[in-house]
Amino acid sequence: MSLETLRPSPAFKEFLPIEYKDLVEYGPYGNPKKVTDMGKFKEVIEEHPMCAGCAMTLFIRLTFIGMPNPEHTIVVGTAGCGRLAISQASVPFIYGNYGDTNAVASGLKRGLEVRFPNQKKDVVVMAGDGGLIDIGFQGMMHSWFRKEKFTTIMLDNEVYGNTGGQESGMTNQGKVLKMAPRGKFGEKINALGLAKVAGVDYIARLAPTNPARVARTVRRAIMVAREIGSSYIQAYTSCNIEYSIPTPDVMKDAFEIEKERYGFEEIISPRAKEYLDEIEKKPKKK
Ligand SMILES: Cc1ncc(C[n+]2csc(CCOP(=O)(O)OP(=O)(O)O)c2C)c(N)n1
Ligand code: SF4
């Protein structure tokens, strides 16, 4: 999809819904926006059926704002809460089967490179912790070992939220959940460490406490995947339902968890660092 594809022919314009026209005229296509512009432009995602106050929706919204080229981006996801919002965005979404998100993204990215040699296309896998670290583990790890050029974003709410509260590999040890009444047996999986071992070029962990940082991290991850290799973002996106966090306290929880055990961290390979330094270099003032 590009702005040219979206732009309606003048004869049809008057029949299109206002949301569509707003997206073409005031959306981020061809004109990337910053989080400081929030509220002043038509976002690619504005409505969704997720729970009120869910931090995952805030993170997803910021992810779309952070995309360097949303009109040339395809998102791959799977079952889980996040897909309820991701599939509402005006960015193509592929609903993968459980376990195959990273295999689908690998084939898609390779195919796009052949089909559109003159247009960079960004591929982003965005799925839950259960969908990636448990059910999609093998596919995810192998895409990293193969250095596939796309970004994997884990929406880590530390539970299977969509199916009512089973423990995932990312749940903390001992945590009692509705469907883990004896408490989580093993430790939270060190997915950042696994990404490092697999040679992922850009790895980041963060909570959605700083919108500008979320957008910048997403942008960096996508740019590295575009030119260098795999990238991985792990985001704390609390489940207020399964963790019984009162809606007004969702952001308080995010700040607390960030301070306790989910601090911002970036692990960047030397070649990715060199590339990021180059593209982020400020033009010298004359
Ligand atoms: C093949 C298959 N197995 C099981 C399910 C049921 N299912 C739907 S969502 C989900 C769990 C999602 O957990 P997670 O990936 O952590 O995402 P969350 O809902 O917490 O965001 C499961 C097991 C399914 N849809 N398809
Ligand atoms: S169940 Fe949890 S993760 Fe899913 S939408 Fe509701 S608050 Fe968000």
What would you say this structure looks like, in words?
The protein is of the alpha/beta class. It has a single domain (51-280), classed as Thiamin diphosphate (ThDP)-binding fold, Pyr/PP domains (Rossmann fold). The protein contains twelve helices and seven strands. The protein has helices at 3-6, 10-13, 18-26, 55-66, 82-86, 101-115, 129-134, 137-145, 191-198, 211-227, 250-261, 270-280; strands spanning 73-77, 93-95, 122-128, 151-156, 202-206, 231-236, 265-268. Strands 2-1-3-4-6-5-7 form a seven-stranded mixed sheet, with helices on both faces. Helix 10 (211-227) links the parallel strand 5 and strand 6. The chain is globular and about 60 Å long. The chain starts with a helix and ends in a 6-residue tail after the last helix. The mean pLDDT is 95. The structure holds thiamine diphosphate and iron/sulfur cluster (SF4). Thiamine diphosphate binds at residues 79-82, 98, 127-131, 155, 157, 159-163, 168.
